[in-house]
Structure prediction request, 112 residues.
Amino acid sequence: MTHPNSMIPFSFHVASLTKGVVIRGLIALVLISLFLLGASNPHPAWGEFWMIKPLIVVPLAGAAGGAFFSFVDPFHYRSTWKKALALLVCLLVFMIGLWLGTVLGLNGTYWN
Prediction:
């Protein structure tokens, strides 16, 4: 006989997930916006609306990093070294995701 809650290994709060996704998505949006503001003379072959792709893809990658951070959040309440390891892994995943999102978003414009 199993207990009714034995099937759930851990739980997370939807508000915490939403907050993490929104905050990290906004961070990514601000970073790519600052980068794109420096493009004063875009190449004519890129098209008129070339900025839309990076402004969508990069914040989505940042939001995915925020979701990962929220899923790893239960490990932040463990011992000191597990908390530090969880934070390091979350930052690493967020930075790699942001980098990959930037490359995918700028593919065909800045990076051919």
